[in-house]
Amino acid sequence: MPRTPSPLVIAHRGASACAPENTLAAFRMAIDAGADGVELDVRLSKDGVPVVVHDRDLRRLAHDGRKVADLTAIELGGVDLGSAFNSASPKHQRAELVGLGVPTLIDVLELFAAGKSVVHVEMKIDKKRELRPLVNAVCGVIHDSPVLPRVVLSSFRLSAIAEAKYALPAVRTSALFAPSIMRFIKRRRHMIALARAFGADEISLYRSLVTTKFAKIAREVGKPVNIWTCDNAKWIDRAQKLNLKAVMTNDPAKLLSYRFTKLDNGHLAG
């Protein structure tokens, strides 16, 4: 049987080192690079459409102070993310990036309908009142998509993944943890307990939080572990050593090249 490459390489907001993050161009570049999947962020537009964007406003992405929640999906699609990217990333600037806007979740899922890519969808929730409308809208889109079996819904708000599981039992979920979690818990293994309590199928955490002991306990209770954001190839080795499921990176081509080299030498097969 063919070997399964390990760990999986997931493109963080697409190939975001080389194209504007969370755009169709970034996701296409990830596909072309051979990434095993992508990670993206979703919020609701003014008209209640799940749109793929990380920040609550467009200041960082487009030098535009307007908030995502104040714009319709069509208006967001017309925002120029490419020009700001070209200005900030001269090494990767390209004329064809100019005019790239914020895509809808439907737009992005259509890219992956025919493939095998895993799609990690992070629900961005700033206020409690946003939780249920976003979860319901996202689950409504995913329910009708052929990508459903390959979607992993995630959030730092663990109640959101519990809500998602209730709304769409077939969807796979992941509990997200940033380093700030350590201000609220005494031991890393408590993250595993939280993930189990909220019904998460997987755990995704910042790379510095994972330890040998944590990975072992998570594995024993059947919770695959993903780490982010890993742009240094050394994290491929670290993930393999700890038997992690995936690494998320802004530069999938670089990590894939390293992983392929290791595979050629007879390593990193799961």
Walk me through the structure.
This protein is an alpha/beta fold and 270 residues long. Helix content is 35%, strand content 19%. The chain has eleven helices and eleven strands. It has an eight-stranded parallel β-barrel with strand order 1-2-6-7-8-9-10-11, surrounded by seven helices. The chain is globular and about 45 Å long. The mean pLDDT is 96.
Briefly summarize what is shown:
The chain is α/β, with parallel strands linked by helices. 35% of the residues lie in helices and 19% in strands.
For the structure shown, list the relevant keywords.
about 270 residues; alpha/beta; eight-stranded parallel beta barrel; 11 helices; globular
Q: What amount of the residues lies in strands? A: 15-25%
What characteristic shape results from the CA principal axes?
globular
Largest sheet: 8 strands, parallel, barrel
CA-CA gap between termini = 12 Å
Number of strands: 11
Q: What is the radius of gyration computed over CA atoms, rounded to a whole number of angstroms?
A: 18 Å
Helix/strand-derived category reads: alpha/beta
What is the residue-averaged pLDDT?
96
SSE topology:
Layout: E1 8-12, H1 24-33, E2 37-44, E3 50-52, E4 57-58, H2 59-62, E5 64-67, H3 73-77, H4 82-88, H5 105-111, E6 118-123, H6 131-143, E7 151-155, H7 158-167, E8 172-177, H8 189-197, E9 202-206, H9 212-220, E10 225-228, H10 234-241, E11 246-249, H11 252-264
Parallel strand pairs: 1-2, 1-11, 2-6, 6-7, 7-8, 8-9, 9-10, 10-11
Antiparallel strand pairs: 2-3, 4-5
